[in-house]
Each structure stands twice: as structure tokens, then as C-alpha cells.
Amino acid sequence: MASDLQAQTTEVLQRLVRFNTVNPPGGEREAQEYLADYLGDAGLDCELLGALEDRPNLIARLPGKADGPTLCYLGHVDTVLADADDWSVDPWSGHIVDGFLYGRGALDMKSQVAAEAVAVAELARSGWRPARGELLLLCVVDEETGGANGAQWLTQQHPDKVRCDMVLNEGAGAPFDYDGRRYRGVCCAEKGIFRFTITTDGVAGHASMPRLGDNALLKMAPLLERFSTTQPSFDVPEEARALLQGIGEPLDADVAGLLERLREADPMIALMLEPMLGVSMTPTRIRASEKVNVIPAQAHLQVDCRVPPGRELEDVLPRIEEVLGPANGYRVSFDECVSGNRSPAETPLMQEIGRWTAEHDPGSSVVPTLLPGFSDSRWFRAAFPDCVAYGFFPQRHMTLYEAMPLIHSADERIDVRDLGFATTFYRDLAERILGNAAE
Q1: Cis peptide before 268 (omega within 30 of 0)
Q2: What is the pLDDT of residues 265-292, one digit of tens each?
Q3: Model confidence at 128: pLDDT above 90
């Protein structure tokens, strides 16, 4: 049965990869129509609904025999850009090479969409229906640019159509080994975004006479140096503490010391963990004079700042001053402020995920994790405060350290064996959570 699920999911993923859904512009309609036909033929109730004609969201459902919870499998079909010149294969081919399926979206996240769709279709074709509640499959658009036409639009404009109690989305699930044991993360939270711009002031002048003006750009140099050398104090969220506890490294007061020990023991796990431990600030853009022969009177540095859930603007400002020093000679203005979000880590859903993982990969266990970026889970947590939203796409053969560098990169690919593994999980989880009306 697992090999059959693997073959089906591989075929569906190949079809999805061949739809070029790079966002912007997106143009996801053909992919969504394919999925609607595939799921409709299996017996699901399907609806295409969108803010834009060429970018509909797909809502597919299997209602149960009695009242109960709604379990939602969530995925997005848009992708980031792919430059074919950087790839060893056509990024929209879905070619299989040495057991890996290549293509933009093979990891982020058409693979999960395919696994969820095949799992739900197989359940429907078998005659399975929930004993209680409902199984909901949402394939949305526009995640890669924030979800304004996808999950955000659905949860705000049509909440009754997508209301749910549990969500399985992207964000974790690839295995990693530490100290002789195997773990899989379950993404329970996401950092917030508090992007800001630093401005320095000077006096304009002709660039042929460097000392005639006061070059605002040069005043950025010490600030950039501080970003490269100074670490703000840690603000460790509960999810990072739980992860460390889960891998046998309980957190004490010396966070920096622990992080250094992890770097020595396993550099990759330290690389993964460090962004979870507090506020991160990454300068990404700088601009000054509009003309090459004009000394700039102002320079502007944009900084991508990510903040753990539970921390707000008043927590960010002291961290900026820790890195840059008191605001003498520079100004800070915030461009975007989005608070972090989370779901509780101790729930029946987490228990079921842990049980299934232990059964299908003996000796492994699951641990809570925090996503340094964001996903569509945030819209469901905001719209439905009691909803438990996790990121989990279980893999067995491709590790976290192998998969992570390929997301949004050239030659994105997935081990086809992991497609069958994940599809089996989504099939089994629905039966465990919602029961079987035939029993």
C-alpha cells in the first residue's frame, strides 16, 4: 500500500511541478483546476474561490456522520522564482534523477500539497468518512508574497468556509540526528517581523571634492560593523526551550555558552537553533545618493528583524540599542510590524503526531520547533484563536540538513520515498483524529 501511495503522490507532484506558478504573478488557476478535478473524481466536495479570477483557492471537504472537530490539511501551490540557467534540469520538468524528483516546489511546498491530496483522495475512494467532524483540504495561492489573495483573504472574507480546529501546514518534519538519536520538529510557532530602516544624516556636496560635504553613507560603516560583531541579549521563547529539553540539552542561564557547545558538537543544529533564541537583525539593503557624483545628505539601511512570539515593539528597541549603541547619529523608523504567533505544544494533535512517528520510524521522537520565518499558519491562528496549527511534513530519507539548503534554491528536489511516507501519515492521521464512520 505504501508503494502505491508513493507512486500516486509522485505522479501528482510531477503534474503540479509542471504548472509554472511562480509568484508573482502566480497564475495558479490551472494547477487548482487540476487538483479540483482530481479530488472531485475521488468524491470530495470541491469549490474554487478567489479574490482574483486567475488565482482561485481550492476548498475540498469530506463531511462526517456526526458533529466533531474539523481537521484541515493546508498547502500553497505558488512558488518562488527559478532561474533555469542555475539548474541541472528544467525546474518545471518534474524529472526523477537517482530517486529524487526535481522541480521548483518539490520541497516548498507542492510535495506536501500532493501528499495531502492523495491521502484524502484515497480515503474518499475507499468509502471512508469521518465518524465525527470533517476533513478539510485547502490548497491556497499567494503564500510566497504574504497570502493577501490566499489564506489571509479566505480567513478574513470567508471564515465560515475555512473554520477549523486543527491545521497541518508546512514548516517542519524532516529528521535530524543529535547525540545518537533521531528527531523531527513540529512547528508550533513563528517569529514576528519588525523590519526597520536606519537613517544617517549629512550634508550634500560635489563628489569631486570629498571634504566639501558631510557623507551620510560613511556614517553607516560603524553601524554595519556593529551588526557583524555584536549579538543582542537572548529572548528565548518556550518553543526553543522545549526543543532543547527534548534533545537532552536543558537550558540554563548561560545561553551563549550552550550555543557554543552545540556549535562544537554539531554545527548544523547550532545553525538551526540560533535564530530561535531571540531577536535577529539582518541588514539587507542600503541606499544613499541618487547620483554617483553627489555626496549623499542621507543614507538609509533596511534591516530584516525577526522577533520571537510574545515579544513586541517595546522589546525590540532595547535590542537595537544593544547592537548599535544609543541613537546618537542615527535614526530608526519601523516599516513593518507583525507580531509572532504560536499554538500550544502540548495537545492531543501533538500526541498523535508523536505516536505515529514512533510507530513508523522506531527510535525517533518529535520536538516542538519555532519557524524563523512565517507561513499561512499565522492567518488561521489569528482568525480562529482556539485553532491548533502545526507545521509538519514527515520525511524519513532526506534529512533536515539536506533539505533546508534546497528550499528556494537551484536543483530543489525531494526523495520520492518520502512522498509515500508523508502520504501514509496524512491518511492515517485523519482516521486517528476523526474516526471511521464504517466502524
Answers
A1: no
A2: 899 999 999 999 999 999 999 999 999 9
A3: yes
Nearest to 189 by CA among 345, 38, 331: 345
Instruction: Give every CB contact of residue 409 below 8 A, 6+ residues apart in sequence.
Output: none
For residue 109, the cross-strand partners are none
User: In this predicted structure, what is the pLDDT of residue 3?
Assistant: 74
Provide the b/e sequence for 303-319 (b: ≥16 CB within 10 Å).
bebbbbbebeeeebeeb
**Residues found in the chain:** 439
**Taking Cα atoms as reference points, which of 170, 187, 183, 128 lies closest to residue 432?**
128
* Bridge pairing between strands 388-391 and 166-169: parallel
Are 305 and 281 contacting, i.e. CB atoms less than 8 angstroms apart? Answer: yes
Residue pLDDT, tens place only, 339-366: 999 999 999 999 999 999 999 999 999 9
Q: Is 70 helix (H, G, I), strand (E, B) or coil?
A: strand
Residue for grid cell 470533517: 134
Strands 70-76 and 134-140: parallel
Map grid coordinates 529572548 to a residue.
235
As a whole-number percent, the residues of the chain with pLDDT over 70 amount to 99
